[in-house]
Amino acid sequence: MSQKHGHPSPDAVGLNLLSDCGNCFGLCCVALPFAASADFATDKAAGQPCSNLQADFRCGIHTQLRQRGFSGCTVFDCFGAGQKVSQGTFGGQDWRQAPHTARQMFDVFPVMRQLHELLWYLAEALTLPPARPLYGELRRALEETERLTGGSAQELTELDVAAHRSDVNALLLRTSELVRAGVAGRKKDRRGADLIGAKLRGADLRGANLRGAYLIAADLRGADLRDADLIGADLRDADLSGADLTGSIFLTQSQLNAARGDTTAKLPAALTRPARW
User: Fold this and answer.
1) pLDDT per residue as tens digits for the range 69-85
2) Which pLDDT band holds residue 2 (cuts at 50, 70, 90)?
3) CA 73 – CA 40 distance, rounded (Å)
């Protein structure tokens, strides 16, 4: 039986984990690199402003990103790291007016983005009733991660974010095991599996471990993904039409945005059905 639980409410946990592009200096459009591919029409080096970035830090083709070959931009989510770096770490001083801050700001952004993503997962873990025995550890991990986000630019660039991520991930894995243990029967373990283009229509994936699985263009129409762990799963162009994702854990809005679906797919209450479904 699927457990009833939800995704994190940033307001409820006192965190700001929703992207606010109006208070960001276009950091995802500058700091991060991308390569010409199905997701991006051109190459761009890290630290180089995207050619579509305007003077006011807004995207000049925002309403036409997919049509112009920039679908990768439509599915990216910084979990609120952009405004935290722009308005918090650098106090509202933007990299154009203060060019000396640019390099450090661009280095800090990907670190902050990882910390905010961890905060999102930890906040969700604290809403999962089966994880109650771990609530103390989860709260401490959340508080420590939040403390790290308040560090100076130098502290953030020097942070061993991979080590911190590893520690938090171990805790999230224990959380996942507690949640999935409530699903009767044998659960599939496809962690990190290559399931690109897999034919999984109508598959029973309740309580499955799909952490980091490559589900690109997989056929998941009508699949049962209740209580499945989807942290880091690559769902680009996966077909979720009619799939049941209620109760799935560690699923993010960006993963949904990258997938295909329809109006019959059942989603976690805190996530929004993509407009193109």
Assistant:
1) 998 898 889 999 999 99
2) very low
3) 8
Greater confidence (75 vs 53) lies with 53
Q: Residue 7: which H helix or E strand, with range?
A: none
Burial of 7 (0-12, 13-18, 19+ CB in 10 A): buried
Three-state DSSP state, 34: strand
Which DSSP string do the residues of 197-245 spell out, in sequence order? T-B-TT-B-TT-B-TT-B-TT-B-TT-B-TT-B-TT-B-TT-B-TT-B-
* pLDDT category of residue 5 using cuts at 50, 70 and 90: low
Q: Rounded to whole angstroms, how far apart are CA atoms 139 and 172?
A: 12
At residue 135, what is the residue type? Y
Q: Is 80:19 a contact under the CB 8 Å cutoff? A: yes
CA separation for the pair 119, 80 (Å, rounded):
10
The C-alpha atoms of residue 255 and residue 148 are separated, in whole angstroms, by: 26
What does the alpha-carbon distance between residue 124 and residue 112 come to, in Å, rounded to a whole number?
A: 18
- What pLDDT is recorded for position 270? 83
